[in-house]
Design goal:
This protein is 44% helix and 13% strand. It has helices at residues 2-14, 16-23, 60-74, 87-99, 114-119, 127-132, 144-147, 170-175, 187-199, 211-224, 242-256, 268-274, 329-344, 359-362, 365-370, 375-380, 393-408, 414-436; strands spanning 47-53, 78-84, 106-110, 149-150, 153-154, 157-169, 280-284, 298-301, 312-321, 355-356, 384-385. The strands form two sheets. Strands 1, 2, 3, 6, 7, 8, 9, 10 and 11 form a nine-stranded mixed sheet that branches. A two-stranded antiparallel sheet has the order 4-5.
């Protein structure tokens, strides 16, 4: 999950040039419309539909085929063909494949992919599909449907969410005389624990300047301090606001004051936690499937509230219906039946380290009974913030990580690093507006 998102972000940025060319020849966003999708299961002639997804690691490659096999066995008139590949490869292949009429009938994309694909004309508008399937925003965590929208129209249906949590090495806490049952929930209690750990010669939280997981921690802190990454219409960067500076200063202070070592390598913080060198790590729900945790005594809790508001970063994935040249409406209708069935049967998806998006599935008490480590993540969803949705946003987001790395390595002050990144990001946002017609 973690390295997959990073590869996806890089590849999506590289693919923008291809997509921009296609956007001009693929018609308006959403193309020819969603076609006829009945509210009940697809009852037309037998069709074979292709499903692209980026689940190539962890438990997902095992679970997805099992779910598809079960779906196929229950639907004589629909055959779903699973085509897993790297997220980044999907971003690169999708524009040309859809233009040639050889793209998937249904795919899964992350929240920061949807608007780009929609602006390129690659997706069918999903408003009619959402209505036909009986979905509304209330069926999913607050704000999640918005992550699959573009210019007021819906292009994605939520599938999963992956918020951050605070992973705790209980043995390390005990070695410093800290009761593991007392989990820090705010800045005062968190800093007190870090100070005690420091007194025992332990750097309690290792802060890194990479997407995983420094960027996600920074974004959580920006929201906690009452700020945001961009303005409402995503035409200007705001991550260099007072809130952004407070967020990044908190992280640099952890290094400067000895609570974190300097120059933590990519994934060094989670490795430090697993090797009992540090006590706390802000990381995603996907780590609950990390078998290395079996080697330590650990717990997980919601991330502490360092700022004035509760907030936490979360990624999301969404179902998308593709606007292939000559797209067959029966296949789109069959794909809609597949999506509804998958959401209704998504309880086992927690096994992959992702939370089902559907409220009725996720809130079933049996889910926590089966996967008790998910409770802190479920508890944090009411104040989760999802990826910014705007065409080409991944290129601007990459500059946030650049600023983070520059500040945490002492090359620039938090303010200077964020200001420089914001200037460059604003230029990208302006270019995106011109390219995509926003």
């Amino acid at each position: 999950m973690n390295k997959g998102i990073a590869r996806r972000a890089i590849a999506a940025t590289l693919a923008l040039g291809v997509g921009i060319v296609l956007a001009g020849c693929a018609g308006s966003a959403g193309g020819s419309g969603s076609g006829a999708v009945p509210g009940e299961d697809y009852a037309g002639p037998k069709v074979s539909i292709t499903f692209w997804n980026g689940w190539t690691g962890g438990a997902a490659p095992v679970l997805v085929p099992k779910l598809i096999e079960k779906f196929n066995s229950e639907h004589d008139n629909i055959e779903v063909k699973n085509v897993p590949q790297e997220w980044g490869d999907i971003a690169k292949k999708m524009p040309l494949a859809v233009k040639a009429g050889k793209g998937p009938d249904v795919a899964v994309g992350h929240g920061d992919d949807i608007a780009t694909y929609a602006a390129q004309g690659l997706l069918l508008g999903a408003d009619d599909i959402v209505d036909a399937l009986g979905y509304s925003a209330d069926d999913f965590p607050e704000g999640l449907m918005e992550a699959g929208a573009y210019q007021g129209d819906q292009y994605g249906i939520p599938w999963s969410v992956t918020p951050l949590g605070l992973y705790v090495n209980n043995d390390v806490l005990r070695s410093a005389g800290i009761d593991p049952a007392v989990v820090p929930t705010d800045k005062e209690s968190y800093m007190a624990a870090l100070e005690t750990l420091k007194g025992a010669g332990i750097a309690g939280e290792w802060v890194d300047g990479y997407v995983f997981t420094g960027t996600f921690e920074f974004q959580s802190l920006v929201w906690q301090f009452g700020g945001d990454l961009y303005n409402d219409d995503v035409t200007k960067s705001t991550f260099n606001s007072d809130a952004g500076v407070q967020a990044l200063t908190h992280m640099t202070d952890l290094i400067d004051q000895g609570y974190s070592p300097p120059n933590v390598a990519q994934d060094g913080n989670i490795k430090g936690l697993l090797s009992s060198e540090t006590a706390y790590n802000w990381n995603g729900v996907w780590q609950t499937t990390n078998e290395s945790f079996n080697q330590i005594d650990w717990t997980v809790a919601p991330v502490p509230q360092i700022g004035t508001e509760k907030a936490v970063w979360s990624s999301s994935t969404h179902w998308m219906f593709l606007n292939n040249k000559g797209q067959n409406q029966d296949k789109t209708a069959a794909a809609a039946t597949f999506v509804k069935w998958m959401n209704e049967n998504s309880a086992g998806w927690a096994e992959t380290g992702e939370l089902p998006a559907a409220n009725d599935v996720r809130n079933d008490p049996a889910l926590i009974e089966t996967y008790p480590n998910l409770k802190p993540f479920l508890d944090s969803l009411p104040y989760a913030h999802y990826e910014t949705s705007a065409p080409g946003i991944t290129a601007a987001n990459a500059l946030i990580t650049t600023a983070l790395n520059e500040a945490l390595t002492g090359k620039k002050s938090p303010q200077a690093a964020l200001d420089d990144a914001a200037r460059q990001a604003d230029a990208i946002l302006e270019q995106n507006a011109a390219k995509y017609g926003d």
